[in-house]
From TrEMBL:
It catalyses: dUTP + H2O = dUMP + diphosphate + H(+). It comes from Methylobacterium hispanicum. It is an enzyme of class 3 (hydrolase). Its EC number is 3.6.1.23. It comes from the Bacteria. Residues 153-164 have a biased composition (Gly residues). This is dUTP diphosphatase. Belongs to the dUTPase family. Keywords: Hydrolase, Nucleotide metabolism. Residues 142-164 are annotated as: Disordered. The lineage of its organism: Bacteria, Pseudomonadati, Pseudomonadota, Alphaproteobacteria, Hyphomicrobiales. The gene is dut. One of its GO terms (molecular function) is dUTP diphosphatase activity. Residues 28-163 form the dUTPase-like domain.
Length: 164
């Protein structure tokens, strides 16, 4: 991983194991620009894939696995903004979380969110998602059993009540 604005002193080293030999020819691994947050993920398909509107999501191989190792970090698989807005291509699971101890093949859950309209076509080698690396906070959790302790007034009206 290349250094960030902080000089990279506290950035982890992430190992990448290529599982699909076509990836380097498509330009992987790289960020699309010097300021890009997400690492481009490519559809490692042998033939085009058509996603019907509102059909079940399809798992698309990204063609590699990662070794994050540091439990203070994880990867997030997110849709690409343009394809999501223009074509309705989003992640079937919303956001994919790649834990530091997961070292299996990366799969992209691709879904056509459009309720009606044309199928979404994914071509082999097309950039269809991005992975952002981020820090993980794991607070110490305590079980509170003292119901007499005064709490916040927030939440008394139920889910979504504070925005009325």
């Amino acid at each position: 991983m290349s250094p960030g604005a902080d000089g990279g002193a506290d950035l982890p080293e992430v190992g990448i194991r290529l599982l699909d030999p076509r990836l380097p020819g498509w330009g992987f691994p790289h960020w699309g620009s010097a300021g890009a947050a997400g690492l481009d993920l490519f559809a490692c398909l042998d033939a085009p894939l058509l996603l019907a509107p509102q059909a079940r999501p399809a798992l698309v191989p990204a063609g590699f696995s990662v070794r994050i190792r540091d439990p203070g970090w994880c990867g997030l698989v997110l849709p690409r903004s343009g394809r999501g807005h223009r074509d309705g291509l989003v992640m079937g699971n919303g956001t994919g979380v790649i834990d530091a101890d997961y070292e299996g093949p990366l799969l992209i859950s691709a879904w056509n969110r459009n309720p009606d309209g044309a199928p979404v076509r994914i071509e082999p080698g097309e950039r269809i998602a991005q992975m952002v690396f981020t820090r993980v906070a794991r607070p110490r959790l305590t079980v509170e059993t003292d119901d007499a302790r005064p709490g916040s007034a927030r939440g008394g009206g139920g889910f979504g009540s504070s925005g009325r």
